[in-house]
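Q: Given only this backbone (144 positions), what sequence would you predict?
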């Protein structure tokens, strides 16, 4: 079993709020558990039997877990580093509009490129740890 790690949980999907929650990710005997650092957020337990797919998003320090029943499939991303601002990832503008020549450039594209670069750089540090987590969760979910 891998050691518990600090991670940021993000629920993905159209109904999910674009919110990242910092906490501790732990692999238990029967579930993948996420304990938020802040009290207002509830403990998240994903039963290993409900996990259908686990993978590392290529080039990023992100563990994607697809879980739930056939009628309600949920996707949860666990970032092993603090995620970039999610408003930019979701296509929302977070900066003021630039003036002059800079106005001709696409600020959303630049922000997206900066975020991808940040995730790619941090991926180098966390790749071995993330690979260990993917392997451990797959094995545990396969036997559950």
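A: Predicted residues:
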């Amino acid at each position: 079993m891998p050691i518990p790690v600090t991670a940021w949980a993000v629920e993905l999907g159209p109904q999910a709020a674009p919110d990242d929650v910092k906490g501790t990710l732990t692999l238990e005997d029967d579930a993948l558990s996420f304990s938020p650092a802040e009290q207002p957020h509830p403990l998240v337990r994903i039963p290993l039997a409900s996990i259908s797919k686990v993978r590392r998003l290529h080039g990023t320090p992100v563990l994607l877990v697809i879980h739930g029943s056939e009628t309600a499939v949920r996707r949860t991303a666990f970032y092993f580093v603090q995620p970039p601002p999610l408003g930019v990832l979701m296509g929302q503008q977070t900066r003021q509009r630039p003036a002059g020549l800079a106005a001709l450039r696409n600020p959303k594209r630049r922000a997206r490129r900066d975020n991808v670069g940040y995730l790619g750089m941090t991926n180098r540090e966390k790749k071995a740890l993330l690979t260990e987590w993917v392997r451990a969760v797959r094995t545990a979910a396969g036997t559950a």
